[in-house]
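Recap from last week: sequence in, structure out.
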Amino acid sequence: MKLGSLGKKFAFYVGIVLVWHLVYAANIWPQNVFPSPFSVAQTLWYGAEDGTLWIGIGTSLWRLAAGFAIAVAGGISLGILMARVQTVNETIGSIVLGLQSIPSVAWAPLAIIWFGLTDAGIIFVTVAGALFAVTINTYTGVKSINPDYIAAALNMGAKGEQLITKVLIPAAFPYLITGFKQGWAFGWRGVVGAELLFSFLGLGFLLNVGRQLSDVSQVLAMMLVIMIIGIVIDGLIFKRLEDKVMARWGLR
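Predicted structure tokens:
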């Protein structure tokens, strides 16, 4: 990232904090409704000092990683089946788009009934949130491949696993990246949403604790952490991966 871009972002975020502090100093709302940036920073410091913040981050991230890995494996497999097998596309494929429209948190009641208040239930919600985005983008990517390329690969003896790993997935990878980005974003929301309802460790749990205690500083602190993690994961992993894929394909 260029130094000028970093400077603009730094100035932008500093400006947000300054405006926040000015609004706080104006006493428009009571302090227990609109806390100062210092109060939120102090809450983060205490959470980091006693370890609850790190436990929450670690717990949420491993749930996200487990659910996202399952969603990627399942989504790629289902997307390829939909693209290559007409019967699958006409049956399962007909409801995938509808299932994607269901918010992640809407799967939480079903997860509680099936799995109870466990990690498995939260991971289920994560998978349900991410799976269909990966599936749809995989399907679109495979369907967009020039049929002549697939025919040429088949004539050269590629079939089964070799056709999938050497031809279909590499050719559809720009679409897969989009699916991964959408899937992890939906999955991240699913993790936090499920933790809010399950009240079972994680950042969503800490967010809910702040709500129960009417501690707005705690609520804003956890929202800030959730947002920062989202920005960091997107920037360090998906943005870099997307740039490399696009550059290889000559799209950038």
